[in-house]
């Protein structure tokens, strides 16, 4: 039986159409009602919809046929997208192979090592036959709402995404670097990406005191995709410091008293135009290094030690880090590449990704234990 169903928001028919030009290739794009950004099917770039061009959604009630209420205090939403059917990977020679393996391994880790009930782990992958388990924009939105709905003290929540990310110019002054990050659902060309503003509003701000959210995002342009106010920079010599990424606009991006932590990938930016997901890579570096580091380190490992272990595993390219048993079964004897398969055409051996940590609050990363 499906864990959820029905339509959410933009899944209903809308009236009124408008068009605009892609900012990069000038292709004519159809403005999607209720959305703030459009992904171009010609060049793959994301263009912000100007406020004057946005089409509002009609007033509507809550989503119909909501999720079944699996209310354990450990819940997870795991999303893996290969884009096999959506044409996302134009000119790249095929679909991503890593994301579905990533999701399977993450589920095994949560259930076998951390005791997450299987009925409280929602998997959205584009190989599913159930239409409500496909990683469409509507389904991802419903899953995010389900994850935090009614959260309470002691809840441990996990959000995992393995797929493609995007950047789009910020238009409301809440980004230090001037860009919003976004996650691409399988229907991104038809519905647009999911912006970090919406992700923050949906799964970060509702967290109440005592509730914890850990997110692992294995995608390009994902360093601040939860829009958390503090970003931790860790040098190779172990020195670390928190950077203040609270919006210049003064907008609140924190929680309602709980804690949110994001593990993501960071690129140095020197190869932004030279990277492309590698069709033969069947594992994502972020997912692989996170799971392997958790497996190798003792329980109660600190966040700082976990990041250091992830960096070592990434630097080795995963060599010598095969996982045994049920957790690593989908990963054994597979190729590992950055960002669920990102490599450089000019320097295919180059390490383009570093593990990154951001949080809703600052803490001593070498004193605070990692607990799921």
UniProtKB/TrEMBL annotation:
Do you know which Pfam families this protein is assigned to? Peptidase_C14
Q: Which Gene3D superfamilies does its entry note? A: 3.40.50.12660
The family this protein is said to belong to: Belongs to the peptidase C14B family.
Recorded protein name is: Peptidase C14 caspase domain-containing protein
Q: Which InterPro entries match?
A: Metacaspase, Pept_C14_caspase
Superkingdom assignment: Eukaryota
Family matches, as PANTHER family: ICE-LIKE PROTEASE P20 DOMAIN CONTAINING PROTEIN, EXPRESSED, METACASPASE-4
Residue spans making up a coiled coil are none
Annotated Peptidase C14 caspase domain residues: 74-316
């Amino acid at each position: 039986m499906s864990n959820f169903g029905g339509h959410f928001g933009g899944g209903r028919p809308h009236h009124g159409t408008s068009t605009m030009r892609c900012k990069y290739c000038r292709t004519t794009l159809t403005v999607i009602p209720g959305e703030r950004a459009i992904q171009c099917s010609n060049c793959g770039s994301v263009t912000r919809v100007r406020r004057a061009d946005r089409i509002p959604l009609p007033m509507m009630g809550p989503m119909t046929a909501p999720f079944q209420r699996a209310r354990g205090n450990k819940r997870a939403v795991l999303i893996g997208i290969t884009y096999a059917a959506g044409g996302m990977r134009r000119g790249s020679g095929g679909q991503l192979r890593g994301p579905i393996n990533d999701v399977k391994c993450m589920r095994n880790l949560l259930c076998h090592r951390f005791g997450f009930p299987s009925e409280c782990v929602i998997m959205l992958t584009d190989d599913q036959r159930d239409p409500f388990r496909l990683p469409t924009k509507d389904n991802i939105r419903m899953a995010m709402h389900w994850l935090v709905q009614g959260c309470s003290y002691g809840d441990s929540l996990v959000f995992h995404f393995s797929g493609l990310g995007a950047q789009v110019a910020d238009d409301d002054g809440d980004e230090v670097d001037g860009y919003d990050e976004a996650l691409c659902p399988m229907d991104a060309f038809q519905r647009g990406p999911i912006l970090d503003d919406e992700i923050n509003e949906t799964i970060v701000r509702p967290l109440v005191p005592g509730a914890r959210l850990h997110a692992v995002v294995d995608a390009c342009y994902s360093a601040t995709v939860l829009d958390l106010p503090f970003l931790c920079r860790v040098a190779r010599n172990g020195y670390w410091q928190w950077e203040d990424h609270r919006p210049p606009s003064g907008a609140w991006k924190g929680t309602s008293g709980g804690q949110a932590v994001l593990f993501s990938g960071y690129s140095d930016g020197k190869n932004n135009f030279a990277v492309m997901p590698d069709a033969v890579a069947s594992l994502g570096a972020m997912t692989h290094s996170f799971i392997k580091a958790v497996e190798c380190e003792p329980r109660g490992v600190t966040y700082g030690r976990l990041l250091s272990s992830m960096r070592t595993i990434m630097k080795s390219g995963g060599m010598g880090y095969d996982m045994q048993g049920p957790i690593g079964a989908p990963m054994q004897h597979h190729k590992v590449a950055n960002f669920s398969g990102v490599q450089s055409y000019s320097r295919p051996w180059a390490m383009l990704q570093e593990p990154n940590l951001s949080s809703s609050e600052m803490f001593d990363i070498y004193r605070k234990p990692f607990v799921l």
